[in-house]
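Supplementary Methods S3. Input chains for the assembly prediction are listed below.
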Amino acid sequence: MNEYIKLAWRNIWRNRRRTMITSASIFFAIFFSIILHSFQTGAWSNFLDNLVSNYSGHMQIQNKDYFKNQTINFSMPYTNELHETLNTIDEITSFSPVIQCGGLASSGEISKIGIVFGVDLNDEISNAYVDSCLINIFISEQVVNELKNRNIPNELIEKINNLNKKYYKNKDDLKLNLKLAEEEMSFLDLIAETAFLKSEFISKKDNGVNIGFELAKYLELEIGDSIIILGQGYHGATAAGKYRIKGLLKFPAFEFNNSVIYMPIKTAQILQSAYVVSGNLQDTTFLVNYVRINTNNPASLDKRSESRTLKIKDKVEKLIANKELDVVYWQKINPEMTQLAGSKQGSSKIISFMLYLIIGFGIFGTVLMMIAERKREFGIMIAIGMKKGKLAIIVILEMILLSLLGIVSGSIATLPIVLIGHYFPLKYSGGAAEMLENLNVEATVPFQNVDFYYLEQAFTVLFIVALVIIYPVIKIIRTKVI
Amino acid sequence: MDIITVKNLHKIYKEAEIEVHAVRGIDLSFKQGEFSAIVGPSGSGKTTFLNLLGGLDTASEGEILIDGTDMEALRGSKLIDFRMKNIGFVFQAYNLIPVLTAKENVEFIMHLQGTSKAERTKRSTELLTAVGLGERLNSRPGKLSGGQQQRVAVARALASKPKFILADEPTANLDSESTANLLNIMERLNKEENITFIFSTHDARVVKKARRIITLEDGKILKDEVK
Ligand SMILES: Nc1ncnc2c1ncn2[C@@H]1O[C@H](COP(=O)(O)OP(=O)(O)O)[C@@H](O)[C@H]1O
Ligand SMILES: [Mg+2]
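Predicted structure tokens for the full assembly:
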């Protein structure tokens, strides 16, 4: 075999220029295809994982009937054993019980349908997000009037007036909407201070809730006022409660601002009578809609990600060992998202396909020329005792070596870009960044790290080469010696 | 003893509508140790005849026995193996594999035959020394003159220890000095090693060296004289 590789290697350098051109075409196809894939898959996977881990979670543990009937009646007990079991699973990076239900929110005279979320106060990550959505600035009539008495240019007062009765999360949010001119920047602190609104995150200590600011507006409620919630509890129990509003929330999604009511999970469970008492009161088991789990396997477009997900799902199922419970994972929970992401990836596949089609023809051209040039040489080799099969092997080796030159050099050339792009990702700026951050999505575009897809690309090229090689092999087998 | 027996050999080329009767009934035999020239004007069928003898082409009619084996009966890789073991070839030009050195070219067949590396090195060096190229073992064909290339081709043809060597106009592209040089080497190998050479030529100087001269005309034997 060594002898053949030697011969093949020397043969490809007989026509140095042609070899360079052919392998350069493979080089560029591999290069662009990998960069494209890494960029697209990386960016989409990052976006996807952010959304999935923030909202549905990578997985959920549910009552086996919950997926079809998403009500408290199909909730599940959240026991200490379950909590401990989940703690022991290495693949799980975080988990939190989730309780949510619809209810009528009312201020006494006015009412509106709202959604109650029970917040696990131990789940720092999602708390941090809700916390970041708290409103701390409110431009009221009074604020505008107060600012008029300060030494503020009229144009700026005009701008502030335009934001009358508007809520902002913080100074940055305000700044973005106020569209301050350079020379007006110095007034930002003053405006923010004057318009400060004290919104506080819910805590275990009191009976307080955080609600969407549009809901508060509709119900004509302010911070410090009480809100009444009425609804259906567990197995037909009446759910009713009165809570103090500790803070207003502003989410990027309008429907949320219109409806959400956040309260500590225990408070929500008691509201809905979502608990089962067996024997004495100490043995109370609280119920939750589901347990949200994030794992060390990010949501990704990578095909292997799903199989890793399935492995973790199996493990969790085995360890919690409860026939009443199901583990569902994000692809099942968000089928639309999975599809959307898949279709985005399709476009990069088409471009890669075209690149490879072009190099396919390129390689074919090279093969045709090579065969034509060496017809006589092949004849002589066969005349002196070379079997046709062996000759074909040499030609195949030549094409493989030629392709490997392009594949290996092209892949290596992508490494700096892919690695830097992965570890020091590009950042969105301006409006796009703001929008993503509002969605609680990192505003970065990391490249997908070096992974299996390098091999996929390499094998794609080798597959094309294999197709193209059929022709010379047939030619060789049909070679007449003279 | 006859190593080659040819009986009533015919070759008809059919190309499109035209038939060319290139060899028209040749009966002939060759003995071990011959040094024979096939001569005749261009188009008389020399190349066709040698190709048939070497199993590079198939006869339209007739029979070729090499050491009792009927060439007709051999096909595909059996034929390739048979050729490698029994027949050495020297073509008019472009005999050598351009990417291999002189030594590697000679070793190539031995490699195909599975000869050990030590044996290959020994024999290729001996053969190239015998054809006067002991100093050029590691030169690639491109760096050798036409005459030197033909001598490498002779060395290569001998590498597999064939029963005879067929050479189709081996000197056609050589100047007179190289021609003389090559012929001397062939003659010496014939005399000292008893190697059978059958070569075609239309060069008078080459014809003079031959001990048997077979003259072809229109695919038939016109004369067959032994000196
Ligand atoms: N492959 C072929 N197809 C058709 N005709 C051929 C072929 N090879 C040789 N011929 C014809 O056969 C005849 C003998 O040719 P060849 O054996 O080459 O003669 P020589 O070697 O003596 O010059 C010529 O008329 C030539 O044109
Ligand atoms: Mg001829």
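Residues B 46-47, 169 surround magnesium ion (ligand 2) (CB under 6 Å). Chain B has a mean pLDDT of 91.
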